[in-house]
Design goal:
Layout (H helix, E strand, L loop, with lengths): L1 E2 L4 E3 L8 E9 L5 E9 L11 E2 L11 E3 L8 E6 L9 E9 L9 E8 L2 E8 L9 E10 L1 E11 L2 H8 L20 H18 L1 H16 L8 E7 L5 H5 L2 H16 L4 E7 L3 E8 L6 H8 L8 H12 L18 E7 L6 H11 L4 E8 L6 H6 L12 H7 L9 E6 L7 H8 L3 H7 L8
Parallel strand pairs: 1-10, 13-14, 13-16, 16-17, 17-18
Antiparallel strand pairs: 2-12, 3-7, 3-9, 4-5, 4-8, 6-7, 8-11, 9-10, 11-12, 14-15
């Protein structure tokens, strides 16, 4: 059956099958890049579960009812759609085409959306650039449920491209059977999803290594039931002299990139805050997906390695940075924030201000900040053996006894810290590292709202 723009039909009039293939094709003389996606939205036209946004970077919904199949039989992209397996919360499937890069949809020479069942084409909607103006994205068609499953040939354009589409699917339908109209104001979740998707597209183009790390971090977050968790991320680096070989080897730069990748899963601004400590504590600024290349080396050019190690100064500086009202001083009542702060605190040895550090960590327990301490080097238990074997690499004399004590420090409002150590920051696989970074944080995050730390 050939469909015209705006035409609708009950799906059962086309085929009794519920296991379908939806193929989309689009051609343009200049061969631009097109992204083809499927949005699974609820009865209010809202994308409330982003696992049902199926596109190049998320190829399947959780139960497999929606799956990206890739090009086939003249289609630029095809989707497998099993309506019988869709959860009852998904009431509409929206198939879209977005232009990635310069140009507009008016440049399309021709395009189509077609539905096949059992290898037989049962519906086709064709369109051309003359149907559009300056839009950079279109809704080609929809399969939606209104008492029964139905198909609509939409052909509606959006000037704002992918971002406008994502905001659109946060709106409410104006008419019960409207396939294209929606209010312009999205709920809070829609802009967050828009930013995340656009950030991932940017990473795919400009920093694929970060996107690969981010996907590994996402797996660890999902295992910890933190897939939708939001937090600010900070990285606090030891710049005492004993860290020299680790910086020269590039290992700290690569570790910082792994933390940045985690930050892109916790937050959608594509950045993490950087702090340094040695003899003094320093607020450096943001490491972002735009400036991460060579960031650590450039930072050391401004902040040379120092003689001395003071955890307490760094903790106080970070507390004052995120909660300036307290100025890093004593607290005895909880402070709440919408976004908690996850601090990755990296060091290779002992601090010179143990009492200050203990005091700061006790006071910090009243703030929505979690401190993940990571030690680099062999523990003190192995130091003697390594000396006898002639290993004088700067890693041999690490003593993490104090960090182990901080992990179980008594007298805190909540347990706000965790510790683990590795002999070398690259001695563990990336997936294992992210699991370690999520050791105790999930339990802290779940309990923080009830203690008045997260709103």
């Amino acid at each position: 059956m050939q469909f015209a723009r705006g035409q609708k039909s009950k799906l059962e009039a086309l085929t009794p099958a519920t296991d379908l293939t939806v193929g989309l094709g689009v051609e343009a003389p200049a061969s631009p890049v097109f992204d083809i996606s499927c949005f699974g939205v609820d009865e209010n036209n809202q994308l409330t579960d982003d696992r049902y946004f199926v596109f190049y970077n998320q190829k399947e919904s959780p139960e497999g009812a929606l799956a990206l199949l890739g090009p086939q039989d003249g289609d630029r992209e095809a989707f497998r759609v099993d309506l019988a397996r869709l959860p009852s919360t998904i009431r509409k499937l929206v198939f879209t085409i977005t232009l990635d890069g310069p140009g507009t949809m008016s440049q399309v020479s021709r395009g189509h959306l077609r539905i096949t069942a059992g290898g037989t084409e049962v519906a086709r909607f064709g369109f051309a650039g003359s149907d559009f103006g300056q839009e950079k994205a279109i809704i080609a068609g929809e399969i939606y449920h209104k008492d029964v499953w139905r198909f609509a040939a939409v052909g509606q354009g959006f000037n704002g491209g992918l971002s406008a589409l994502l905001e659109h699917f946060g709106g409410e339908e104006v008419e019960e059977d409207s396939s294209a109209q929606a209010t312009a104001t999205p709920p809070p979740a829609a802009p967050d999803l828009s930013k995340r998707v656009l950030l991932d597209k940017k990473l795919e183009r400009e920093a694929p290594q970060l996107l690969s790390l981010a996907k590994k971090a996402q797996v660890s977050l999902e295992k910890a039931n933190l897939a939708d968790h939001r937090a600010k991320v900070a990285l606090c680096l030891d710049i005492s002299g004993s860290m020299s070989s680790l910086y020269r080897s590039g290992k700290i730069q690569r570790f910082a990139e792994k933390v940045l990748a985690l930050g892109t899963r916790f937050d959608d601004d594509g950045s993490i805050d950087i702090f340094l400590f040695g003899r003094d504590a320093h607020v450096v600024g943001e490491m972002t997906v735009d400036n991460f290349a060579g960031f650590v080396g450039q930072t050391l050019g401004r902040y040379p390695l120092e003689a001395g190690t003071h955890y307490g100064k760094a903790i106080r500086e970070i507390r004052a940075f995120y909660f300036p009202d307290g100025r890093g001083k004593e607290r005895r009542s909880a402070v709440a924030s919408e976004l908690p702060v996850y601090v990755m605190f990296l060091t290779d040895g002992q601090t010179h201000d143990e009492e200050t550090t203990r005091q700061q960590l006790v006071w910090a327990a009243y703030e929505p900040i979690f401190w993940q301490f990571m030690g680099i080097g062999k523990s003190s238990k192995d130091a003697g053996a390594r000396k006898r074997r002639g290993f004088f690499s700067g890693l041999f004399s690490s003593d993490f006894t104090f960090l182990e004590q901080l992990d179980v420090l008594e007298g805190r409002y909540v347990d706000n810290a965790s510790f683990f150590s590795v002999e070398d920051p690259e001695s563990v696989r990336d997936d294992e590292l992210y699991d370690l970074l999520m050791g105790e944080y999930p339990s802290w995050a779940r309990g923080a709202p009830s203690r008045g730390l997260i709103r």
